[in-house]
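Throughout this chapter, every protein is written as a compact record of paired, labelled lines. An example of such a record is reproduced below:
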Amino acid sequence: MSCPILFIEIWIMSETKKFTIGEFSFETFHEYRDAQEDLKKIECINNELDIHDSKVAVRLYNLIRAGKIEFKSPIGEQFVDHISDILAENNIDLLEDQAFIDEAEGKVKYQKYMGFAAIALAVVFFGYFAINQANDALTARKMSKLAETTKVESTSLGESDTTNADYSVTSGNPFAWSENIKRDSLNVLPEYQGLVEANPDTVGWLAISDTEINYPVVQRGDNEYYLKRSFYGEEDSNGALFVDYRSDIVNEHTNTIIYGHNMRSGMMFGGLKNYLDKTFYENHKTITFNTIYEHRTYEVIAVGLSEVEYQDENTYRYYNFIQAGNKAEWQAFVDHVNSLSVYDFDTASLKETDKFLTLSTCNDYTEDGRLFVLAKRVE
């Protein structure tokens, strides 16, 4: 339910890199998310209850004291203080008087009926939640079994042995792209042969240590099919990880883009939000994206926050950068990433011959927000 009772402007300060909600600033993304959750609770309380009613304020205060309603941020603490002020202003001295509470409940039958309705709605909600949880668990088990068949473990991150070709920097014109390698001339790596048999759309495997990200990656002729379908093509809200249809995993373009949903469970690209924690970012610079033909290793060089731009807006879109046609296009991409980067972005270390990997997902720091992790191929 939307509860537009409170209006607090939310933004990220580009200079300090702090997360800000109104007058409150947060050092970490996790603190910022706790504050967002508290805001939602406060909005719904204000929408459903008259907190200035003495009896309602007493009930609400006791629920908070009993730990049945919890707040985890300074915003929540400020709201609790506000409730306390309301009680003080009305000279209420019955906070621990259960008899008073029971009497109030007996006199307000309408509230009881509303309580029964709320319970019924809760049953429906939690039933739906349980179904989704079961579906997530089933999907997780399937992905775990796939990981076992491919023998791709987090401990193998960084291995670079290949069966088809060794990675080398492109010589000559770095902006000249051609489809000079034919897929039918390559051999599928043994560990991925089973995946290709299960789904011919399979193009590789992506893994990041200390996250749930350890999944097969698919590619199709559009960017819609796997949004609501699993690796097996079954209807699944988790979707699958998929490469942008414009990218070529064999004859690498300047930038290969992989998309995935930001699931609250941490599945798919839910783990990418960990990169908003600087310690995690500094300790997890290695990404493995093996194609079905060769092993590849990438180094994370930037983490950015952006948003989807409308078609009539004349702005740069990082998710449209696939191949640099010239130095100006390459530089425009680098400059754009630098402007969106959460951390310092070392542009001086980049070369025009570099090949990039962009992992893109949703993020609710703003409407239609996007989080992306940019990595450079090193092996």
